[in-house]
Automatic annotation (TrEMBL):
Name recorded for this polypeptide: Helix-turn-helix transcriptional regulator
Keywords: DNA-binding, Transcription, Transcription regulation
HTH hxlR-type domain mapped to chain residues: 20-118
Secretion signal span: none
InterPro entries found in the cross-reference section: ArsR-like_HTH (IPR011991), HTH_HxlR (IPR002577)
Source organism of this protein record: Bifidobacterium miconis
Domain of life of the source: Bacteria
Short name of any one Pfam family annotated for the protein: HxlR
Length: 119
């Protein structure tokens, strides 16, 4: 039996993850869009169109692909409501929310870096 990390609707094969924990984290969030998706979902649930507007210059195709990958990785939860037209909302899972300290550290570092350049 292959060991897995299981969650709501995802199964990640532990054997496919890098041995190094830093590399594992980077594998999950290394795309710039994924970091921005995490940042914009930290305050709470958003619909697709809200998320696309908040991120800025991202195509629908790229946002969809990143959200699907993040859902498969267990970082994002996708809720579809049976309405006409269908309403879809995205939120962070507990695993996704646990990346808040990483996002906060990136924010702080970026602020410090910009301050040093301005000085």
């Amino acid at each position: 039996m292959i060991p897995t990390i299981s969650g709501d609707r995802f199964m990640v094969d532990i054997n496919t993850l890098p041995v190094c924990p830093v590399e594992t984290t980077l594998t999950l969030i290394s795309d710039k869009w994924k970091i921005l998706i995490l940042r914009d979902l930290l305050p709470g649930t958003k619909r697709f169109s809200e998320l696309r507007r908040s991120i800025g210059r991202i195509s629908q195709k790229v946002l969809t692909a990143n959200l699907r990958q993040m859902e498969a990785d267990g970082l994002v939860h996708r809720e579809v409501y049976p309405e006409v037209p269908p309403r879809v909302e995205y939120s962070l899972t507990d695993t996704g929310r646990s990346l808040k300290t990483v996002i906060d550290a990136l924010w702080d570092w970026g602020e410090d870096y910009k301050a040093k350049l301005a000085a």
